[in-house]
Every structure is written in structure tokens, then in C-alpha cells.
Amino acid sequence: MGGAGRSALERSQAAPxxxxxxxxxxxxxxxxxxxxxxxxxxxxxxxxxxxLIEMASNRFxxxxxxxxxxxxxxxxxxxxxxxxxxxxxxAITVYRWVPARAALAAG
Length: 107
Description:
Layout: H1 8-13, E1 28-33, H2 43-47, E2 53-55, E3 68-70, H3 82-86, E4 92-97, H4 101-106
Antiparallel strand pairs: 1-4, 2-3
């Protein structure tokens, strides 16, 4: 029935969907920012869904701008590439990997 016929209160108190024993793979990624191309516009910092990109305040690019840097000590980047798409200078390269299905099935 998928929630039809239930009140909003009943739906909000329903148990959240669980994957059970299956593990849901999460894509991981890394970005490389070519600092020589970065002009410090900060667009990438505004679109990162995990807020992992920040501006380096301790150094400058050859053009005199503070470059963007990846601040991801816990490796939370998913490689979504939104930062790369919005970058007007094409200074961001995204590397993304997704766990292989065979590896997930094995264990």
C-alpha cells in the first residue's frame, strides 16, 4: 500500500528503511585543483554538498589569488564532480571510484 491510507503521524513514526545485512556501497572520490589556474572565485566552495573545499589563506597563486583546496581528512568526498562543473577555469579534476559489485558480493 506504500503509506496510502495512513495518517502523516503514522508515516513519520514508521521505521526507517534499512538495507539489512546488505551493505550499501558509497562512491568515493578525490579532486585535484590546479592552483595555477584557480582564480579564487570560491564557486566550488559554495556547491560542495559536503563542504570539503575551502580557500587556502596561507598561500597565493601566481596570479595573486588564494587557491581552493580540498579539506577532506576523513575522505568523505564522493566524487560528485559538481565543483568541477561549476569551475569557470576548469581547474578541478575529479577522480571517482565505486566499489566493485563482485567485491561486495564476496563479503
